[in-house]
Amino acid sequence: MTAGPVVGPPLRVAVVGMEVRQVKTLELAFQGPCRDACMLVDEPQAQACIVDMDSYQASTALAELRRRDPLRPLILLSLAPLAPAVVASDLVLAKPISLDDLVARLGVLRERVRQAALAAAAAQREAATVPLADDASAMIVVAKRIDDWGRPAVAGDPQARSRVARLLDQEQANALIGTAPDIDPSDPHQLVKAYYDPSRFLQSIVIAARDSAHARGQGVRIQGPWPEIVLDPLRGLARIADADHRLRPYGLQPAALQQSRLEYIERLVLLHGQFRTVALDALIWKLALWAARGRLPLDTPVDVPVQLQRWPNFTRLTLAPGAMSIAALWAREPHSLIRTAEVLNLPQRSVFAFYSAAAALGLAQCRADAAPKALASNRPLDFAADARRGLLGRIMKRLNVFF
Q1: Between β-strands 276-279 and 219-223, what pairing exists: parallel, antiparallel or unpaired?
Q2: Is this structure's pTM higher than 0.70?
């Protein structure tokens, strides 16, 4: 590594298999810890690609990428270990993703691209006897050293955290989790407004249909006044007959359960027309966010510690404001819903919405026996002070600065 940064254009990176909000998260990482050393582009213009191997038909997309450009370096994201034949010479990044690890992998990609450019330039010089100085413009370099990427690009800006912390702009956030003010949990009149009944919403219809179809080993078609939904629970997929803006109104309002009709399918096939395929967990997560609107499922205690059972697959899921910070906190140490909002300095509706969606997938639950350690103050935790900081600690350090 050179003594100082090499000035030049940013590394052009494309993403494959990631949802729009997850792409925005990555873009924020490029602007923050990567200090604009990378930029997102369309795949044909990319010098490197990041592929979500948990996405639908990821193997097909990966094969096509390699066919079009066998020498282009890739980062493969995956929850489960990948077979050596799948990985080949590419880099692997295990989920949940640490920003430190992501930055390191991007640094390796940068170096591979640089070495490839140098080799191409050398071959061109050898063939055409071009002087070295004339070939400088042919080298592909990145603007910053990897050492610099981990430093906060906006550390001196007191509003930096609040800007980057919101993965969605305010209008989108309000549409997702509402605008309800914080409540006083000791006031019964305020507390009752913090709850909703999941059994009255489309969320419950889809979950019940999933469980029933899975027990039968079949697929199921859900019909009603909403756009038709087809579930393939054995493969964890859902097919929806229309776009989100057509489905969302039915997810927001209490659904008439008697209007729903289930048709079980022996052999599930892709249907013709405008049906689109999404991960089944992602559909249920989104329906829960729409139904909850910043509220909690009935009878959820607000003063009992919440424990994260499994890490959410954020590359598939719609990110509500503060979601990654909440997940990392609960995975590190259980906290009550009210205490979580205080520790992370988040509106209660952000915490309530995340819990409602996570609970719908069985990812989080309240546990009276999971008592948190006493905290010295109400200030946000200083995760950098944890001498035993592991993977989650490093994530939290980054989230505390950038998200």
Answers
A1: unpaired
A2: no
